[in-house]
């Protein structure tokens, strides 16, 4: 055992069965992988990944053609996990549209994309589920299978379009080139 490690659980199925405490309160997941209470990245109920960027402009190209573009607004990369449902999608879209990361008159982050009438560019990105804890090649086993991921991506886009007038998208599973001007910069990882 390495100094600072402690055995998490005898029934752990994690390859090492150990987690680092280093003075933090460690809570084991069912498989024994430790988490810090309240952390959005390792909480057992966490599901869909989103990486949100406040942008001055953003676009996505597929086969050298612009497929979607926005002016000022949000670029949202999304990745579904196997436990995600349409309920997860509804929560994610509602949270995204109400997230207050645009400046108000006093220069404080206090306005949402809906408040400022900004655009929303939604791009699927299964690599947000990458696990790089072992080896040098990321594992993407945490991402939803393609058929489920596509259905949830489509549901996400449909719900976003129902609630917000200016929505552009990439295409699920396509090789895309995303261009953006990050405003701030403001980049927020989000898990639900």
From TrEMBL:
Binding partners and assembly: Homodimer.
Reactions catalysed: a D-aminoacyl-tRNA + H2O = a tRNA + a D-alpha-amino acid + H(+); glycyl-tRNA(Ala) + H2O = tRNA(Ala) + glycine + H(+)
Protein's GO biological process: D-amino acid catabolic process
Principal location listed in the UniProt entry: cytoplasm
GO CC terms of this entry: cytoplasm
NCBIfam families: D-aminoacyl-tRNA deacylase
HAMAP family: Deacylase_Dtd
Organism: Lautropia mirabilis ATCC 51599
Enzyme Commission number(s): 3.1.1.96, 3.1.1.-
Subcellular location field: Cytoplasm
Entry-linked InterPro entries: Daa-tRNA_deacyls_DTD, DTD-like_sf
Enzyme kind, highest EC tier: hydrolase
Domain notes: A Gly-cisPro motif from one monomer fits into the active site of the other monomer to allow specific chiral rejection of L-amino acids.
Classification of source organism: Bacteria, Pseudomonadati, Pseudomonadota, Betaproteobacteria, Burkholderiales
Gene3D superfamilies registered for this protein in UniProt: D-tyrosyl-tRNA(Tyr) deacylase
Name used for this protein in its record: D-aminoacyl-tRNA deacylase
Superkingdom, natural source: Bacteria
Keyword line: Cytoplasm, Hydrolase, RNA-binding, tRNA-binding
Motif (Gly-cisPro motif, important for rejection of L-amino acids): 184-185
SUPFAM superfamilies xrefs: DTD-like (SSF69500)
Family to which this protein belongs: Belongs to the DTD family.
